[in-house]
Amino acid sequence: MEGTKPDEKKETVEITLRTIGPSPPSRLTVPSSIRVHDLRKLIAGDSHLPIDDMRLIFRGNVLLDNKNGDAAIVQLHDGESLIVAIKPEPPAKHIWDDVDEDDSEDLKFQLPQPTGRWKRRLFFFLRDKFKLPDMLLMAIFSLSLKIWAVIIIWFILAPVAQRLDVGPLYILGTGFAIIFYNLGHRQPGDVSAYSVFNEDFRELPGTLNADRLDRDIRAGQF
Q1: 3-class SS at 113?
Q2: Which of 78, 175, 188, 197 is the most exposed place for a label (fewest CB within 10 A)?
Q3: Rounded to an integer, what distance in angstroms lies between the CA atom of residue 170 and that of residue 179?
Q4: Could you tell me if residue 189 is left (phi over 0), alpha (psi between -120 and 50 degrees) or otherwise beta?
Q5: What end-to-end distance do the CA atoms of the chain give, in Å?
Q6: What's 86's DSSP letter?
Q7: Are 109 and 134 in contact (CB under 8 A)?
Q8: d(CA 6, CA 137)
């Protein structure tokens, strides 16, 4: 006859659920180590509460389903309390004056699906820990690694340029570099709006310049 393992009784614990509102406290038996998402499912099934609108507060902190891009796990002990809060329903549609309720969700910055694991971890760290706004997150993660490398090198060289008393030239050169970098590239056969860049200084049709004005005046078109 096989003996019982000493740690087998510690696999589950009984916790107290305190729902915000008139509902009385209840007790629930759950695994001592459980994913937050699975814990919310157990509570929703036991209390018949909507899982999408449920928020769990444990030891003064709101439990999130994901932490740094990975499923969050919570460690529970027997007799501990968990606060359950249900997000109130939004006002009726006529109060919004025909404003789309999903507009605020659409404005939130979301990482593309094929984003790498380390980049997702950094995104969740900056959003959850430092509470960076979506506009700043969009600016950070929209730049490529090459651009970030150039920015870091620029800030490293800036104090060197300042010590050499060429700070203004350094900033001026940076401005010209940005301008030339964003000029783009013309395809074969394309004509530039500036005649000096075209073969035989050919101008675009309809270009207004001093020669064109002189010809129009001599032709009596003014």
Answers
A1: coil
A2: 188
A3: 14
A4: left
A5: 114
A6: E
A7: yes
A8: 49
Task: Give the pair of three-digit tokens for residue 143.
Answer: 């730049």
Q: Are 35 and 71 in contact (CB under 8 A)?
A: yes
- What single letter denotes the amino acid at residue 211? D
Question: What does the alpha-carbon distance between residue 165 and residue 200 come to, in Å, rounded to a whole number?
Answer: 43
Average pLDDT of the chain is 77
Find tokens 């990975």 and name the residue.
70
Name 75's Cβ contacts closer than 8 Å, sequence gap at least 6: 32, 33
pTM: 0.41
Q: At residue 166, what is the residue type?
A: V
- The CATH code that applies to domain 11-86 is 3.10.20.90
Selected residue with higher pLDDT from 196 and 12: 12
**Residue 37 to residues 82, 110, 125, 219, Cα–Cα distance (Å):** 14, 20, 19, 81
d(CA 110, CA 140): 12
For residue 165, which amino acid is it? D
Instruction: Indicate the domain borders of the chain.
Output: 11-86, 103-142, 146-181
Amino acid letter for position 81: S
